[in-house]
Amino acid sequence: MAECPRQEKRTDELAHPRGTARKQLEQSLERARANLTTWVSELEQRIQEIDLLSEMDDRLQACRATPEVVTVFTHFMRRLFGTEAGALYILTSTRTSANPVAVWGALPPAEWEPLSCRCWALRSRVISMSAANHFVPRSAERNNFLPTNYLCIPIPVRGIVMGMLQLRSVPTDTLLDERIVSEYLSESKQRLALAVAELIALALENLHHPDVNGSMYREAAVYQPY
To answer: Is 109 domain-assigned?
Structure first.
């Protein structure tokens, strides 16, 4: 009597279910490693930002004139916001407009023109943001962060707006067209910009009132990365 031919088990049958479970476990471990690497990188970035803010604060407190504040500001903005662009605006003596006294980033100079005092952020003292060409007011609360390409933060000194910090995401496309911007300012970048604006406000306060203890302002300017 002829023997029935032996049927070899297929590879996928041998691999199932133990092989499938092993593959899923390896994929889960790979994702966990990637997430851990990302978390460590972000933590290192936050620590570096805190160190830079502390150094920036020390140097700003040693400034005795507005040009010195501008020099320190520009130096640290290139280190804190290397992939973004921005400008620091200071109101003129007539308070009819605000001029860009410091600019950094890849956007052309024509992007940074003097602002009229009719500018929403200057006029209303409310932080403004935009994901297109139109600014919209937003809450100044630290937990209210939305995707945005523009961020305008007024800088008040003793209740009077003296200037504004503007931060912009830079298009990845070679054409500097805001309609094709795909990258937004992250929540961490927005928090960082708020901390910088508060340090600038404190520095300007000290210029006008060098004998005033700025501890109440320092407490508000502590950077909270999370």
So the answer is: yes
Preceding omega of 17 cis (within 30 degrees of 0): yes
Give the residue numbers spanning the domain of 173.
52-220
Strand partners, 99: 90
Question: Amino acid letter at 163?
Answer: G
Tens of pLDDT, residue by residue over 186-201, are 888 989 999 999 999 9
Model-level pTM greater than 0.90?
Answer: no
| Residue that is written with structure tokens 């504040």 in the block | 69
For 20-30, how does the pLDDT look when each residue is reduced to its tens digit (9 = 90+)? Answer: 877 877 777 78
Count how many domains the chain has: 1
Q: Of 147, 218, 206, 223, nearest to 181 (Cα)?
A: 147
Q: What is the CATH number of the domain that holds 68?
A: 3.30.450.40
Terminal Cα-to-Cα distance of the chain (whole angstroms):
78
Q: How far is CA 179 from CA 3, 109, 134, 175, 190, in A?
A: 74, 19, 12, 10, 21
